[in-house]
Amino acid sequence: MLEFRRVDDDKFNLMNITIQIPTALRRHTGGTAKVTCAATNLDQMLSALDQQFPDLKPHLRDESGQMRRFLNVYVNEEDIRFLGGPSYAFKDGDEVLLVPSIAGGTSANFAL
């Protein structure tokens, strides 16, 4: 559970970030498209989402609690994997976009 502390307490200074929920996941958030929360890292952000939207958790984390491999996270339009991955420290005002990989299609044969 995230604890909210006074902003002037540097040891616990949490960053306010905005999380964009893609259309494919909104059915698990009651239609909510954007969430603002206080988190310093990816795990705290996922925990905040788990707490606020329990139905979303299985789509973000696997059975061991790790972020699902098919979930891509972008911070200010940069892939978080290139920013340090789970160790990336959010900055106040960061915009986070969750992008689940979606597979599918058809194997229809087309005649030319």
Describe this structure as you would to a colleague:
It is a single chain. By secondary structure, this protein is an alpha+beta fold. The chain is 13% helix and 21% strand. The protein has helices at residues 42-52, 57-60, and strands at 16-20, 34-38, 71-75, 78-79, 95-100. The radius of gyration is 16 Å and the shape is globular. The N and C termini lie far apart (58 Å). The model is unreliable at 1-11 (pLDDT under 50).
Give a brief description.
The chain is an alpha+beta fold. It is built from two helices and five strands.
From the structure above, extract its key features.
112 residues, globular, single chain, alpha+beta, 5-stranded mixed β-sheet, disordered N terminus
Helicity range of the residues? 10-25%
Largest sheet: 5 strands, mixed
Biggest sheet: strand arrangement = 2-1-5-3-4
Query: What ranges have pLDDT less than 50 throughout 5 or more consecutive residues?
Result: 1-11
